[in-house]
Amino acid sequence: MDFDRLDNFENVEMSYVSFLSRGYISKNKHIFERIKLTDFSRFVLYSCIYGTPIFKIGDCGKSILILSGIHGNELPAQLANLTLMNELIGADVNNTIYFIPFASPNSTMKNERTFNSLDLNRAAHITNSLSNQIVRSIEELKIDFVGDFHSTAYNSNPGCESVFSSKNPSPESFLVAKHISREVGSEIITYDIAGSQYKGAVEDVCNLRGTPAVTCEVLSPFASIGKGSFEKSLEQMKSFLAYFGF
Length: 246
Hints:
By secondary structure, this protein is an alpha/beta fold. It is built from eight helices and nine strands. It has a nine-stranded mixed β-sheet with strand order 1-2-3-5-4-6-9-7-8, with helices on both faces.
């Protein structure tokens, strides 16, 4: 995967995971009205018109991915991811941080959970699905750790602010989750074996392939940004980075 340096934004590079997932984020008023339209935010939204962009800041230390938008109607984490990138432009980072703020721009545009009727968090093991393409990019880039950020509504699964992890075969998944839980108070939900409850979650497929990963959830009604949910998701992301000394 080849990355291009963005001349207008210090220390930022970008590439694409897929060109099949393109969408206009601005058509989703529930998130667009909350986005601070900096020059960089405008560039990211423009990039989504062509597919799923991936951004890179830094070039040292551990390689870390912050992922959001696997479910297009889970909006707080997507807003938090974009906000975090804006904060890190020009920053002196001690790791290599990759960002996929909108995993499926088409789904976010439509404010839908699925992409082409497929739940991407049950399809990361299916060859050539969009989430599988993300997993393959993780492997190609030799990313060391993955944080997949979501939101959940009351009376859904899990229905509470939480961080998912597993202890095997990537035990550091649980250590990262424990750190986030201790720092921000998110409930730990952990399994002895990755993928033992259901198949195809990005987190589980990464853990099974030897890349420690966690899934973080905040509480928010689907297809909207509930009060405090964006801020909490941003807090989870920063705690995830803090585990690596950021």
